[in-house]
Amino acid sequence: MTKSTYQFPEGFLWGGATAANQLEGAYLEGGKGMNLADVMPGGKIRFKLITTPGFNFEIDKEKYTYPNHDGIDFYHRYAEDIALFAEMGFKTFRLSIAWSRIFPNGDELEPNEEGLAFYDRVFDECLKHGIEPLVTISHYEMPLYLIKEYGGWRNREVIGLFERYATTLFNRYKKKVKYWLTFNEINGATHMPIFGLGFSPATEEDRLQESFQGLHHQFVASSLAVKACHEIIPDAQIGCMLIYAPVYAYDCNPANVLHAMKEEQIFNYICGDVQVRGEYPAFTKRYFKENGIKLDMQQGDLEIIKQYPVDFISFSYYMSRTEKKELTEEEKANGNIFNGVKNPFLKASDWGWEIDPTGLRIALNQLYDRYRVPLFIVENGLGAYDKVEEDGSINDDYRINYLRDHIEAMGEAIEDGVDLMGYTPWGCIDLVSASTGEMSKRYGFIYVDKHDDGSGTLERKKKKSFFWYKNVIATNGKEL
Predict the structure, then answer these.
(1) Are residues 119 and 174 in contact, defined by beta-carbon separation less than 8 angstroms?
(2) Angle subtended by helix axes 397-415 and 464-474, to nearest 10
(3) What residues contact residue 154 under an 8 Å CB cut-off, 6+ apart?
(4) Taking Cα atoms as reference points, which of 217, 213, 101 lies closest to residue 158?
């Protein structure tokens, strides 16, 4: 334990983050319809399948496993898990609502009461322990019917269906939820449209055109959700959610610096500019022209986007990214849905994700300088192999060191003048990995006895990091 010299704000929202499709399980219970995650196979084959054009969105249990079907059974064990979060001292718990629990197909006129009642119970349990729910409305779990019959977010009709869904949530939970997020990691959609936009492009040539058209529809839908949220829950705050990675030039060669700048603009700033500033940034005009992207916008779209920006920016931070205009295959670094050049100054996780806590301080400063709205880190963490010792302990000092370094970077950014609302490390309890469908890629403070082959008792165990993070929260970041 080290003493921190940083002063975190009073009321800072310490907590943890999850997603419905990765922990709930019970994929056919309570009137829930099938969603995207339900057809995602488990194992490292997942990433290859979902990034190959023409993914068929079908279940084939003879060839693959489907770990999201069971998750970690949060659907039945939520009270036990929330009690553990409360024991750590969580001020907030980020979770998502499965759209297909509320509207099984996505286009029904009336919601599914069983689904609504389930989240009532979850929120009540959180509030009983003094934990504020932070709710992501759409987190990689689009109803499968909307994917197959509507073509996902390429179809403009989905805007109205999402507005109905979001409005239903605001009306139902207006006395229970004060913090909302619209779309998870919205800017990642251009790299992997299957997750955020609910479609697999037929060809790589279609990817950019269809992705940016789908994003435009989401921008309109997000603004309509902001409008409805403010009207129905006047004291609520609703934010966007980005995946953010500062982009470094490989060296001081101006060609590499310019390349890195362009990569940063396209990946990090388009979605933030539209959702916070309320307009497409100037550089998109040339980018769209050079890439043959022609957006179908209807009258009033830009006015809606301008009139209803989000209240704050939330984002995930796992790594930075280093770019070089010309690179060989050997120079590439693996990362969270994108590649870059290997950074010789950084170590990497077991999954090849480069570890860069200073990059978090850079990210916070970049975002706050550009937007001047409150920021919220809603994902950050280390996916690693954890070992259960003979005495049942899990000594994950590597995770503690990772989180300590990133919290110190947050403290530095606050000293720099950044307005930071809170911090919810990803996978506060072990859950199914989104990118690979593995249980062995563990992030949590709480170990779940569930394994890649589907075996396990689902018993929960407190890791060493559980007690460390409990003390961090109790001292408001003064003891790390």
Answers:
(1) no
(2) 20
(3) 197, 199, 210, 213, 214, 217
(4) 217
**Percent helix, strand, coil in the chain (nearest 5)?**
45, 15, 45
The residue annotated as part of the active site, out of 125, 264, 354, 379, is 379
Cα angle: 293, vertex 150, 274; to 5 degrees: 40
Q: Is residue 4 part of a domain?
A: no
Residue 379 among the catalytic residues:
yes
CATH of the domain at 19: 3.20.20.80
Compute the chain's Rg from CA coordinates.
21
Element at 242 (helix H, strand E) = strand 237-243
Phi, psi of 100, rounded to the nearest 5 degrees: -75, -5
Q: Helices (DSSP H) in 191-331: which residue ranges?
A: 193-196, 204-232, 254-264, 270-272, 283-290, 301-307
Identify which of 474, 453, 473 has the alpha carbon closest to the alpha carbon of residue 65: 453
Closest CA to 139 of 83, 173, 180, 167: 180
Number of residues assigned to the chain: 480
Cα separation, 85 vs 387, whole angstroms? 22
Contacts of 369 (CB under 8 A, 6+ apart): none
N- to C-terminal Cα separation, the chain? 5
Question: Is the Cα torsion angle 473, 474, 479, 480 positive or negative in sign?
Answer: negative
Task: For residue 40, give the DSSP letter.
Answer: P
3-state secondary structure of 438: coil
The pair of structure tokens assigned to 143 is: 């109803």
pTM of this prediction?
Answer: 0.96
Structural contact between residues 394 and 463, judged by C-beta atoms closer than 8 angstroms:
yes
Q: What is the CA 4 to chain-centroid distance, rounded?
A: 28
Residue 209, token pair as written in the block: 């055109």
Provide the pLDDT for residue 1.
67
Could you tell me where the beta strands, DSSP code E, fall in 33-109?
Answer: 92-96
Whether 92 is covered by a domain: the verdict is yes
Q: Which domain holds residue 173?
A: 13-474
Domains: count for the chain: 1
Residue at 230: amino acid letter: H
Q: What is the pLDDT of residues 285-326, one digit of tens each?
A: 999 999 999 999 999 999 999 999 999 999 999 999 999 998
The answer to the question of residue 101 being in a domain is yes
Amino acid at site 399: R
Write out pLDDT tens, residues 315-371: 999 999 999 998 777 777 665 556 788 899 999 888 888 999 999 999 999 999 999
23, 82 Cβ separation under 8 angstroms:
no
Please name the residues in contact with 116: beta carbons below 8 A apart, sequence gap of 6 or more.
102, 168, 172
pLDDT at 298: 97
Note whether residue 5 is domain-resident: no
Q: Whole-angstrom Cα distance, residue 231 to residue 410?
A: 33
